[in-house]
Prior knowledge:
Layout: H1 2-21, H2 29-34, H3 41-52, H4 55-68, H5 74-97, H6 102-109, H7 112-146, H8 148-152, E1 158-160, E2 163-165, H9 167-189, H10 192-221, H11 227-237, H12 260-270, H13 273-280, H14 285-299, H15 302-306, H16 308-317, H17 327-335, H18 338-376, H19 382-403, H20 413-437, H21 443-462, H22 464-473, H23 477-498, H24 521-538
Helix pairs in contact: 1-10, 1-18, 3-10, 3-13, 3-14, 3-18, 4-7, 4-16, 4-20, 5-12, 5-14, 5-24, 6-7, 7-9, 7-17, 7-18, 7-19, 7-20, 7-21, 9-18, 9-19, 10-11, 10-16, 10-18, 12-20, 13-18, 14-24, 16-17, 18-19, 20-21, 20-23, 21-22, 21-23
Amino acid sequence: xxxxxxxxxxxxxxxxxxxxxxxxxxxxxxxxxxxxxxxxxxxxxxxxxxxxxxxxxxxxxxxxxxxxxxxxxxxxxxxxxxxxxxxxxxxxxxxxxxxxxxxxxxxxxxxxxxxxxxxxxxxxxxxxxxxxxxxxxxxxxxxxxxxxxxxxxxxxxxxxxxxxxxxxxxxxxxxxxxxxxxxxxxxxxxxxxxxxxxxxxxxxxxxxxxxxxxxxxxxxxxxxxxxxxxxxxxxxxxxxxxxxxxxxxxxxxxxxxxxxxxxxxxxxxxxxxxxxxxxxxxxxxxxxxxxxxxxxxxxxxxxxxxxxxxxxxxxxxxxxxxxxxxxxxxxxxxxxxxxxxxxxxxxxxxxxxxxxxxxxxxxxxxxxxxxxxxxxxxxxxxxxxxxxxxxxxxxxxxxxxxxxxxxxxxxxxxxxxxxxxxxxxxxxxxxxxxxxxxxxxxxxxxxxxxxxxxxxxxxxxxxxxxxxxxxxxxxxxxxxxxxxxxxxxxxxxxxxxxxxxxxxxxxxxxxxxxxxxxxxxxxxxxxxxxxxxxxxxxxxx
Length: 541
């Protein structure tokens, strides 16, 4: 039953996507990378949500909740503020510039040198951090959820090319290769709109499945006494884990919400190519804003299926010796009926493929527009550029499949992801913000500001002496990231004051889409911010 329900939903999602998008234009850059700039708000919201909700979220964030409790909901709830800023401030400027990638904006605002550096950073980060983490967390989640050791019969060490490998390592490699190959096929055959439609279908399934897990899990807490009784027992027996205010021992102390956590969320939702490429394909500014704000509303529901299951898993399995990142898969396997486990596994595979495909599509856009068109073949046709992009994703996908299993052994894959993301999130976001807010900062300030940030954060992470020095100055790593952001912004602004551009930069209108804002955007944004505050106050102890 598990296998049948898994295959049934997987086939349904793929076939329905094919029917909807089979006549889409895929040979031009706008068609392949931006869905022909034809995306409407439900497709944008569904795609944004599922691109974000892969297994590094489902497995990783629930694993963080297993360890720290409700305070890790900051990654979901604070994201709403970032999405509001995206809708009201960043999106109108990005759409007006008519760009396909964030480095393109940096080239328009500053120069080709800054664009090339940012482009290379994105490519390296996606190839060796983001894509491997998506594959690794997906493989770990599916292995626990479907109990692949029992299903495959691989429970003893296996001799592979003369090397003895543990059973779980063999399954990890096999699952990573399977998921990566499926994602590669989807990415090669489809455009951004194909991926966005598939995202929306799987997104509906993911929301249904996510709430379903909570329903069955709370029933398990109450031993069949009902969801409300399960919630009451969870609160009564684990009050310290249902506190929205992170303690000093938490991975997300409350004060960090205003420094590093806020900045990482702002970069992720406002300037991360993998995410915002969906909004660049909007048919109009109004549709884009509605899609972004609908995503923000859906993110408010995130703690229910991304945090609460981790807390329930702690309540049920804390003494069983399972790891943080194993908690969600074990919970799903234990509480879901057999015929629904296959359905939810299919939804999870859809989520994995969504994030993997989004990163591959963004990587191909960064390569083709930022490297192929600029350096390798400036006179090449759009058809050749798209062909080169499709070839490049094969190389990147294979590289990520090789790196992914090497992540085994991390204490928390979600914490590792945030640490690695910070290396390039903070410098790029600082340069983008300064570029938008100040018209006089010259290109040299942006380039060196970006370079200083890319050097300073890794020095703190990987040099023990520097790490000890900065740890003595800042209580939490997130405060250090806030300091680096402020430092870079101040350096660039001082440079601009001493040696400004010869002529002030002006944002040109390079798009043909309607840039009329959604008339209810500000009211909806205000309501969302009030809801964020209300959620924190409701669970503050």
